[in-house]
Amino acid sequence: MSKQRDSPNKLSTKTGQDQRAGGGGAPKCYTRRMQSRPATSVLDLIGQTPLVELARIARGLDGQIFAKVEFLNPGYSKKDRIALQLIQDAEASGALQRGDTVVELTSGNTGTGLAIVCAARGYHFVAVMSRGNSPERARMMTALGAEVMLVDQCAESTSGEVSGEDLALVEARAQAIVRERKAFRADQFQLPGNARAHYLHTAPEIWEQSGGIDVFCDFIGSGGSFAGCASYFKERDPSVRCYVVEPAGAAAFAGEAVSRPNHKIQGGGYAMSQLAQIDRALVDGCLQVSDVAAAEMTRRLASEQGLFAGYSSGANLAAALQLLDGAEQGARIAILLCDSGLKYLSGDLFLP
Ligand SMILES: Cc1ncc(COP(=O)(O)O)c(C=O)c1O
User: Fold this and answer.
1) 9 C-alpha to center of ligand 1: Å?
2) Could you report the per-residue pLDDT of 197-221, keeping only the tens digit for each?
3) Which residues, in sequence order, are CB contacts of 342 under 8 Å at separation 6+?
4) What is the DSSP letter of 105?
5) How far is the CA of 4 from the centre of ligand 1 (A)?
6) Could you tell me which of 313, 272, 307, 308 has the C-alpha nearest to residue 293?
7) Does residue 30 belong to any structural domain of this protein?
8) Does 79 participate in catalysis according to the annotation?
């Protein structure tokens, strides 16, 4: 009797190459480590994001750029990490009790993270956001069970460009809701859990995945990601240089006059000269990125590297390229890809 042969369309775990080589197992490109058992909740899926070298974009330059793919968190942003930390800290200290309401101001990402964590832990969550942030963020938070309050922008502001003054209006509304509802404020600008989430998790993951870096640069909003990562990197190796990134024309942290408070890089760049999260001793330099450069780099991340991220990721990449072209030639630079491009589809970032 003739030996039975596999039909050509029968599924197999072997790649053509594996089969020719007589080997087995998953294709070589599937390098992310699979979890060994099912997670018990979505909270277990936060963090442990991949790090990818942007080899095509950095081609021809002296140095390397490693990007932490934070848009692969459950809420499609790095802010899931701080949401989890803030709620865990509040539960541990007794500041948050069963049945309490949680309130926070957000550009959408911290709110989405908090909506996820509050849904999983059984808290009611109120997200307070400027109407200037993209509407898909509000829709996502609502779908996750959050109560979303939108705050009108200042008269001179435009949709998609949220200024520090717009944020001050959101802050005032958030404070009022906290008083009215006797709620817990998951205050990302003030609470230490923000930076600590990145100190405990994001930065150690980067260090382990890269085998060490020379430079970190980060577009700041609350400054929590910058501060947490910079503290950890400098502790590991005091020679690591850390740069704050701000929008051109709104670089108040760098001490520049603010000529253009409204810009397109959502999630930060609020032209604040001081931030409670950032100790100035961590800052080795300040960089500025224009809307045009941030948008161009966001599009190049998508078209050249297949990484579909938002404006601030493009700003981080633009800053890293400035450094490789100037003060940090030859360096290994880490950046965060802060959130997903899916959060910007209603704007003009990806218009054909
Ligand atoms: C998309 C995006 N990028 C950057 C930032 C700034 O991060 P941080 O608040 O840690 O400075 C935020 C903050 O909300 C954000 O949502």
Assistant:
1) 46
2) 999 999 999 999 999 999 999 999 9
3) 76, 136, 308
4) E
5) 58
6) 313
7) no
8) yes
Whether residue 25 is contained in a domain is answered as no
73 and 89 share one domain: no
- Assess whether pLDDT exceeds 90 at residue 155: no
Query: Based on the number of CB atoms within 10 Å of its own CB, is 251 exposed (0-12), middle (13-18) or buried (19 or more)?
Result: buried
Provide DSSP, 228-257.
HHHHHHHHH-TT-EEEEEEETT--TTTT--
pLDDT at 146 over 80: yes
- Establish if 5 belongs to a structural domain: no
| Cα–Cα distances in angstroms (integers) from residue 102 to residues 86, 130, 147, 184, in the given order | 11, 18, 10, 5
pLDDT on residue 14: 52
Phi, psi (degrees; rounded to nearest 5) at 216: -130, 135
Domain count, the chain: 2
Write out the DSSP string of 4-57: P---TTS--S--HHHHHHT--SS-TT--SPPPSS--SSGGGGSS---EEE-TTT
Contact between 47 and 205 under an 8 Å Cβ cutoff? The reply is: yes
pLDDT of residue 12: 60
Q: Judge if 213 and 278 occupy the same domain.
A: yes
**3-class DSSP state of 325:** helix
Asked if residue 267 lies in contact with residue 337, where contact means CB atoms within 8 angstroms, the answer is: no
Whether 134 lines ligand 1, by a CB cut-off of 6 Å, is: no
Q: From 71, 275, 312, give the residue whose CB has the most ligand 1 atoms within 8 Å, as the site to mutate.
A: 312
Residue that the structure tokens 């253009």 belong to: 260
CB proximity list for 49: less than 8 A, separation 6 or greater? 68, 69, 70, 72, 73, 205
Look up the pTM and report it: 0.92
* Distance, CA of 91 to CA of 110 (rounded, Å): 18
| Lowest mean pLDDT segment, chosen from 12-16, 190-194, 257-261 | 12-16
- What is the atom index within ligand 1 of the atom nearest the CA of 194? 10
Burial environment of residue 15 by CB neighbours within 10 A (0 to 12, 13 to 18, 19 or more): middle
Q: Which structural domain, as residue segments, surrounds residue 293? A: 44-77+192-344
